[in-house]
């Protein structure tokens, strides 16, 4: 008979003693449990002891987390958090270097535990940490342990970052700015400053002033990958916390220092594979840079602005220079106005008498005008060819340059997500972005010529404008999905993807998606579904058995802590535990935590999850909501919270957990996989019926014949 839910069978270890096997009554006070354990080993003063997990993070057991203890857990009897905090508080003040170093090392390890951290901070322990750093007498290993302990203690949010003294901050800054400092100390210092920057405007200004962009660029050029990563993290934190004007100035300075080319050459194309953290930071850097266009994108043209009118006139003059050189007195004002209107019409403006009206729509606003001017000035031959070529066509077949440019700018803004907040988890950056200054403008120059090329291939008229732009959007999107490493490669591939190729791709995709609607085929489809759904269930469970590396994300900042979860081969237990980055498929034995599948009660997704309710509801958290799910287990409804790395992983895990719970698989991936498998199976089964029309109804069974004389008589022949 299984034990009651409020009783768990556990083992308790102690150095130099035989382990105890006990049944832990969850309703019994923890102090009483400790008293019984100490009495069994004849230990006095039970209040000086505590229980903690023997494996994994070795968290202390408290009344608040005791319900997380599972059957078969191994605990260890150890010094209580308050006693440990007191000993380490004294130890870090010791004059003996070895004692002090060992105390700081142990402090750095134990500070990950929230119970210990609370006890240590309550003894004003952080003040001693401040003193060690501010006095600056310690270095090397001792200082590294001090900074690590400080980072872990601050992680629990018991103390505000704004309480830090100026002396402490400048000391941390000095470790970043000095050359002759151990790399591990610089990494920890950069991490501390990264955490500090988003908490207040004052701290942002201090760090921005003390740590120059040049210094961060120096660290980015280091061969140490972790130092490079932490420097990039601080740079991103500064950019995200800056005002729009400050961000623009910072990006301009970084552009002058050729940061894009350095990233393209030494980070993206380095011999070492790009980690998830660095990929995210490159995505944010790309997003921040592209969002500098947002101001112009949302600004409508002001017809009374002389500067904007001059830009508009420069487009006309660059295209029709010879005609514009006619002396002013040759034509009357009315004649000249008529000539300008005609030229603006040839440029493709809808309102040729007042072309500024075409640019009143925002987005794309003045960004479209900027792109047209950039194209005319930087590729004058291509610009003239575009305009003059279409001027010579019949009216109904000319490709309108201005109208196309305005719509293309809007399409590029949508594809590149300009004006949208940065995602907390995305890693999708374009390598070619870092290989080119003026990326957006150069991309426009390639794509506007693509518009003209596609227009001719489609033999389009003005009525086909929206259809052409839809094809162009598809050409750009498909090419970007290939992640070309340079704009030249993008140009080659997008031009190779002509209109006929798009039609072929659409036809192929249509054939893949088409379903035969004949009644017999639909009946066959329904008969095949259960078998194929079982195949999908098995695949989902196999994926859970392989396991996945998940990332922990707090409400305050993106974390670099990882944990791994996998299903046991017999599908009875979920194993999970903290993991270092780079570890592939850790064995089940290395994952200390476990949840029996029998204890799982339900699956929560999205907004229903407890860890998403704690976060703010801003747009930037939309992607987190789409990837969040939680397992509710035990009667008390404790949750194991997940943030899937991708939507694909989210679908596979939620499907697999639903299978374990005996429920239907509900993700969109299930329907996609089922459709693919059904399509393949139907095509194989109907292969012999190719080019044969399948009737909606089976043919009628003929009536019985009037006699059966046509049957062969097997009776013996008459003698």
Give a written overview of the molecule:
The protein is of the alpha+beta class and 719 residues long. The protein folds into four domains: 7-79, Phosphatidylinositol 3-kinase Catalytic Subunit, Chain A, domain 1 (Ubiquitin-like (UB roll)); 84-272, Leucine-rich Repeat Variant, CATH 1.25.10.10; 298-321 and 334-509, no CATH class; 530-671, PH-domain like. The strands form three sheets. Strands 2-1-4-3 form a four-stranded mixed β-sheet. A four-stranded antiparallel β-sheet has the order 5-6-7-8. Strand 10 and strand 11 form a beta hairpin. Helix 6 (140-154) packs parallel to helix 8, helix 16 packs across helix 19 (366-378) and helix 19 (366-378) crosses helix 20 (380-391). It is flat and about 105 Å long. The N and C termini lie far apart (82 Å). It comes from Sylvietta virens. InterPro entries: ARM-like, ARM-type_fold, ELMO_ARM, ELMO_dom, ELMO_domain-containing, PH-like_dom_sf, PH_domain. This is ELMO3 protein.
């Amino acid at each position: 008979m299984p034990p009651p839910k409020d009783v768990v069978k556990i083992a308790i270890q102690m150095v130099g003693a035989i382990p105890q096997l006990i049944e832990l009554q969850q309703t019994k006070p923890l102090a009483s449990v400790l008293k019984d354990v100490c009495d069994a080993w004849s230990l006095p003063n039970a209040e000086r002891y505590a229980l903690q997990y023997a494996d994994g993070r070795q968290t202390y057991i408290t009344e608040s987390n005791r319900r997380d203890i599972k059957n078969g857990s191994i605990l260890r009897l150890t010094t209580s958090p308050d006693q440990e905090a007191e000993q380490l508080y004294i130890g870090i003040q010791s004059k003996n270097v070895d004692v002090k170093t060992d105390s700081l090392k142990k402090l750095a390890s134990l500070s990950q535990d929230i119970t210990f951290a609370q006890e240590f901070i309550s003894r004003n322990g952080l003040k001693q940490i401040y003193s060690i750093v501010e006095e600056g007498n310690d270095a090397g290993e001792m200082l590294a342990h001090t900074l690590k302990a400080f980072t872990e203690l601050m992680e629990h949010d018991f103390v505000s970052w704004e309480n830090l003294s100026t002396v402490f901050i400048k000391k941390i800054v000095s470790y970043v700015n000095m050359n002759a400092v151990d790399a591990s100390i610089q990494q920890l210092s950069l991490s501390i400053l990264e955490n500090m920057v988003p908490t207040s405007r004052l701290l942002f200004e201090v760090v921005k002033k003390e740590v120059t962009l040049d210094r961060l660029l120096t660290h980015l050029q280091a061969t140490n990958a972790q130092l490079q990563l932490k420097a990039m993290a601080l740079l991103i934190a500064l950019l995200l916390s800056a005002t729009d004007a400050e961000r623009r100035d910072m990006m301009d300075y970084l552009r002058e220092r050729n940061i894009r080319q350095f990233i393209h050459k030494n980070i993206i194309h380095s011999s070492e594979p790009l980690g998830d953290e660095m990929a995210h930071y490159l995505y944010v850097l790309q997003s921040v840079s592209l969002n500098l266009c947002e101001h112009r994108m949302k600004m409508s043209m002001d017809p009374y602005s002389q500067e904007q009118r001059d830009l508009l006139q420069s487009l006309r003059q660059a295209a029709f220079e010879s005609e514009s050189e006619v002396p002013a007195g040759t034509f009357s004002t009315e004649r000249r106005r008529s000539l300008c209107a005609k030229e603006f019409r040839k440029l493709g403006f809808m309102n040729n008498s007042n072309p500024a009206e075409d640019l009143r729509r925002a987005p794309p606003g003045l960004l479209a005008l900027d792109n047209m001017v950039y194209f005319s000035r930087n590729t004058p031959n291509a610009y003239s060819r575009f305009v003059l070529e279409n001027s010579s066509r019949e009216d109904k077949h000319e490709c309108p340059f201005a109208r196309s440019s305005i719509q293309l700018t809007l399409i590029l803004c949508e594809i590149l997500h300009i004006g949208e907040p940065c995602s907390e988890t995305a890693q999708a950056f374009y390598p070619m972005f870092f290989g080119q200054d003026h990326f957006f403008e150069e991309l426009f120059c390639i794509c506007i010529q693509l518009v003209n090329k596609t227009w001719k291939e489609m033999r389009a008229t003005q009525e086909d404008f929206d259809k052409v732009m839809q094809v162009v959007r598809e050409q750009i999107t498909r090419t970007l999905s290939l992640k070309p490493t340079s704009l030249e490669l993008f140009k080659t591939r997008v031009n190779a993807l002509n209109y006929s190729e798009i039609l072929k791709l659409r036809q192929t995709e249509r054939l893949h998606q088409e379903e035969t609607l004949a009644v017999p085929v639909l009946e066959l489809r329904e008969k095949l579904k259960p078998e194929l759904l079982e195949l999908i269930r098995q695949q989902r469970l196999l994926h859970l058995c392989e396991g996945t590396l998940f990332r922990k994300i707090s409400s305050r900042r993106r974390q670099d802590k990882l944990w791994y979860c996998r299903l046991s081969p017999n599908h009875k237990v979920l194993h999970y535990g903290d993991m270092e980055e780079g570890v592939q498929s850790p064995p089940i034995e290395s994952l200390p935590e476990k949840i029996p599948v029998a204890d799982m009660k339900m699956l929560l997704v999205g907004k229903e999850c407890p860890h998403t309710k704690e976060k703010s509801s801003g747009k930037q958290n939309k992607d987190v909501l789409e990837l969040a799910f939680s397992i509710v287990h035990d009667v008390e409804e404790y949750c194991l919270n997940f943030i899937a790395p991708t939507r694909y992983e989210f679908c596979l895990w939620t499907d697999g957990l639903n299978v374990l719970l005996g429920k239907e698989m509900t993700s969109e991936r299930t329907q996609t996989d089922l459709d693919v498998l059904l399509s393949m199976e139907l095509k194989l089964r109907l292969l012999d019926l190719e080019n044969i029309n399948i009737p909606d109804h089976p043919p009628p069974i003929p009536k019985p014949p009037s006699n059966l004389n046509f049957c062969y008589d097997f009776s013996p022949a008459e003698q």
